[in-house]
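User: structure tokens for this one?
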Amino acid sequence: MILAELVKLRRSALWLVALVLPVLTVTAGALNYAGNRSMLSSGWAPFWSQVVLFYGLLFLSMGVAVLASAAWRMEHRGHNWNLLMSTPIRPAAIVGAKIAALALVVAFMQLVLLVLVAVVGRLVLGLEGMPPWEQAAVAGLAVVAATPVIAVQSLLSMSIRSFAAPVALGLLGCVAGAGVLLGGGGGVLSHLVPQALVSSALFLGNTAVADSASLDPGAVGTIVAAAGALTAAVWALSAVLLARREMR
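Assistant:
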């Protein structure tokens, strides 16, 4: 099922999103870092902090919203929905395959981000050495943390035929997540709002974010556990709702 979903997506424009979004993110981070070198300490950590600042608050979660809408768009076209509803495959498997395929696309996006950070840092900004392993660990953890956002946006895109409406709702989720983090409402609440969970993961050890947690087993374990619980809950809800949908 996952392979079938990836085959469906091979000619989709969502791969362009997975490439363009990291390019824009690293470009913005590099410009901000280069323009504020007098106020920032030199090195990979400050550069990384500038790259993931808005990426964690907005760009990654909004990218997921666009990817999910693109992944479900073909199911809402023509008679594809009726074909989907008449398949003998269980609704849980259909939804799970969508979530897994989108998670792989997000993982690819994170890989592109890491490569661009290394290339731009070395060749453009002239940073010494290579990026520390912690940055790769945070990027990988962000894929796990983004899974609940993937599940929620997949549910919205499954339920709403419009391409733009789920993306707009995703933007509201980003606003809520940013409000939770920036408004001092961290702790449990930051692990219940999917977009805030993404931000919490990307901000681990971030020198540009006040009160950001350090990259330690406790923080990582909490994020992984929250991501797993939220994803499972939304996955189950999506399967129930899909099972109750009718042909058009």
